[in-house]
Amino acid sequence: MKRALFGNRLLPWLLLAPQLAVTAIFFLWPAAQAIRQSFLREDAFGLSTSFVGLANYAALWGSAEYLNAVRVTAIFAVATTLLSLGVALVLALAVDRLVRAGKVYTTLLVWPYAVAPAVAGILWWFIFNPTVGLLPYVLDRVGYDWNHLMRPRDAMILVVLASAWSRISYCFLFFVAGLQSIPQSLHEAAAIDGAGPVKRFFTITLPLLSPTTFFLLVVNIVYAMFETFGVIDATTEGGPAQSTNIMVYKVWFDGFIGQNLGSSAAQSVILMLIVIALTVIQFRWIEKRVAY
Predict the structure, then answer these.
(1) Residue 249 pLDDT grade (very low, low, confident, very high; cuts 50, 70, 90)
(2) Is the pLDDT of residue 75 over 60?
(3) In whole angstroms, what is the distance from residue 264 CA to residue 60 CA?
(4) Membrane-spanning residues where (predicted)?
(5) What's the CA gap between 126 and 256, in Å, rounded?
(6) Which ranges constitute the DSSP H helices of 24-151?
(7) CA 164-166-172 angle, 5° bins
(8) Domain with 86 in it: what CATH number?
(9) Alpha-carbon torsion (58, 64, 69, 74), positive or negative
C-alpha cells in the first residue's frame, strides 16, 4: 500500500477543510446549541431565558407521553430494521441465483432508495388510505377492515412498511456484494459433502455475511431513530393516540408546534445519547461475534 506524502504540511488540512467546515457547521455547532438549550427555559419568542439545570430532563422521565414515545421508537426501530434486512436478504439471494437478468433485476430494485422519506410516506398513505386506497379494498374483501386512522396496530404496520420500503434497496445492494464475494467453491464442497441448500445457507452463507449484516444493522437502527421523521409526518403525524409518535417526531412537535424549546432540546440530546450508546454496544459486544 502506497502512502501519500505531502511536501507542505498545510496542504492536507486545506484538503480536509471543506469536510471539517461542514461537520462543524451542520453537526458540532447545532449539537452544542442543543446541549446548551436543554438546560434553559425559554418563551416561545426567545425574549426571556432562564437557567433551570436538569429540570427539563427530570420532567421528561416523569412524563408518560415521553416514555410512550421511547417505547414506540424501540418497537418501530426493531420492526423496521428486521423487515429491511430480512426482505433485502431474500431478494439478494434470488438475484445471486440469476445469471442473465441479474443486472436488470438489481437496477429495478435499487430505484426505491432514490425516493425521499416524505414521498415514500405519501405513496404508502395513498395505497393504504381507507377511502381511496387499493389495499384496504382488497383486505376488506378477505374480511379485514383496515383503518390506520383509528387503529394503532394498523398505523404502526403502515409506518414500518413505508420506512422499510426504501431501506430494502440499500440493504439489498450490500447483501448482493457480500454474496458475490463468497467463493463458489465453498458451496460446491459443502454440496459434495451432502449439505442441502438450507444447511449451506446457515453454515456458509450467513456466517460469511456477518460483517455486511453487522454494518447494515448499525446504519438501519440509526436510520429508524433519526431519518424517519418524513415518513411519520406524511402518514400518521404520530397518531392515532400517540401510537406512532416516535422520539424524533416528538422532538420536532414539542419544539416547533408546542414551542417548548427547552424540553425539545433535552429530548434531542437524549436521542443522540441513545443512538451513540447503541452504536458503542454494537461495536463493542456484537462485533465480537462477527467473522471477518
Answers:
(1) very high
(2) yes
(3) 10
(4) 12-32, 44-62, 74-95, 107-127, 155-180, 201-226, 265-286
(5) 27
(6) 29-37, 55-61, 64-97, 102-110, 117-127, 134-141
(7) 90
(8) 1.10.3720.10
(9) positive
Average pLDDT over residues 65-81: 94
The length of the chain is: 292
Separation CA 238–CA 209 (nearest Å): 36
Q: CA separation (Å) from 117 to 89, 164, 253? A: 22, 10, 18
Name the phi and psi angles at 89, rounded to 5: -65, -40
Dist CA 279 CA 127 (whole Å): 34
pLDDT band of 286, cuts 50, 70, 90: low
In a domain, 28, yes or no: no
pLDDT exceeds cutoff 90 at 244? yes
| Separation of alpha carbons 258 and 271, rounded Å | 19
Q: CA of 81: how far to CAs of 18, 184, 218, 276, in Å? A: 33, 29, 9, 17
pLDDT confidence bin for 188, thresholds 50/70/90: confident
Range of the domain at 81: 65-291
254 assigned to some structural domain:
yes
Instruction: Please state the φ and ψ torsions of residue 49, each to the nearest 5 degrees.
Output: -135, 135
pLDDT at 291: 57
Q: How many domains does the chain have?
A: 1
Looking at residue 148, the DSSP 8-state letter turns out to be: T
pTM of this prediction exceeds 0.90:
no
The C-alpha cell at 101 is 437478468
Q: Is residue 141 part of a domain?
A: yes
Task: Kindly report, residue by residue over 254-266, the tens digit of the pLDDT.
Answer: 988 888 889 999 9
Distance CA(104)–CA(118), nearest Å, equals: 27
Any idea which residue has 407521553 for its cell?
65
Range 219-242 average pLDDT: 90
